[in-house]
Amino acid sequence: MAETSSLIQIKGVRDGLLITLGGADWADLATAFVKNVDERSSFFNGARVALDVGVNELRVAELSALRDQLSERGIALWAVLSESRVTETTAQNLGLATRISKPRPMEVREVVDELPGDAAKWVKGPLRSGGRVQFDGNIVVMGDVNPGAEIVASGSVIVWGRLRGVVHAGAQGDDQAVVCALELAPTQLRIAGEIAVSPKKQGKSQPEIACLKDGQLVAKPWQDLTGR
User: Three-state DSSP class for 49?
Assistant: First the structure.
C-alpha cells in the first residue's frame, strides 16, 4: 500500500474539511484514512468532513461502514464527492451531500504540522461575543471568532475563518507560538508578553500568520512559515 500521506490530501472549505482520497483500492484508502484520523485525533475530533473519492464506485455497505467509523471518532461525514454516478447515488441514499463550496487555496495539514507541541483543542465555530476558550496547548477554531470573543492558549492558535476577537497565544511565555487566520483582524493580539492591536486593513484580506520576530509582533502571509 502507498504511503498514507500520498493517499490523503486535506483542504479547508467553508463548511469544514475536504479530504481527497485517491491512488489505491477503496479498502486501502479507507484503512489509510482511519489510521490517519487515529494518529491525529486531536486535529480531527469534532470535524465536519467531506470526502472526494474520485472514481471509486462505493455501495451503501462500504460508505456507511466508513461513516460509522468516523462517527465513533467524533467526526461527522456530511458530503461525498465522486466522478462515479454509482457513488453519487449511494451518498444521496445515505442523506449525504454531493456538492460543496469551492475549497480554499491552502492546506490545513501543512500549517498544523508546523505548530510546536502536540496537544490541541478543536473548537467548532463560530465563537460569538462573550465566548471564551482557554486551553493548555494549541487551539484550532473551525469558524469565525467574532468581536467580544476571547481565545487564550499556552501554544499556538489557528482560526479557519475571520479572527476579530481577542487572542493570546503563548500565554505561559512561549515566544515561539503563532497565530494564524484566514482573515487576521483581532481587536487585540498577544503572543507571550507582547501585545498589538490590528491596524485597519488596506485592500483585499489574505490568510496571515502572526509571530514574534526580534521581540516584535509581525504578520505575514500564511504560506510563509519560514524565515522567522
Answer: strand
- What are the structural domain ranges in the chain? 4-93, 110-221
**Domain 4-93 in this protein, CATH class:** alpha beta
List, for residues 70-99, the tens digit of each pLDDT value. Answer: 999 888 999 999 999 999 999 999 999 998
The sign of the dihedral angle between the CA atoms of 33, 39, 42, 43 is: negative
Q: Where are the alpha helices (DSSP H) in the chain?
A: 4-7, 26-39, 41-44, 60-72, 85-93, 108-112
CATH architecture of 110-221: 3 Solenoid (2.160)
Quick: pLDDT tens for 105-139.
444 443 344 444 456 888 887 888 888 898 888 99
What is the maximal distance between C-alpha atoms in the chain? 57
Spatial distance between the Cα atoms of 175 and 186, rounded to a whole number of angstroms: 19
Rounded CA separation 132/63 (Å): 37
The reported pTM is 0.50
Alpha-carbon distance of 33 to 58, in angstroms, equals 16
Q: What share of the chain is helix, strand, coil (3-state, %, to 5)?
A: 20, 35, 45
Angle between helices 60-72 and 26-39 (to 10 degrees): 10
In 3D space, the residue among 184, 142, 148 whose CA is nearest the CA of residue 166 turns out to be 148
Segment 20-63, tens digit of pLDDT: 887 678 888 888 889 888 887 777 777 888 999 988 899 999 99
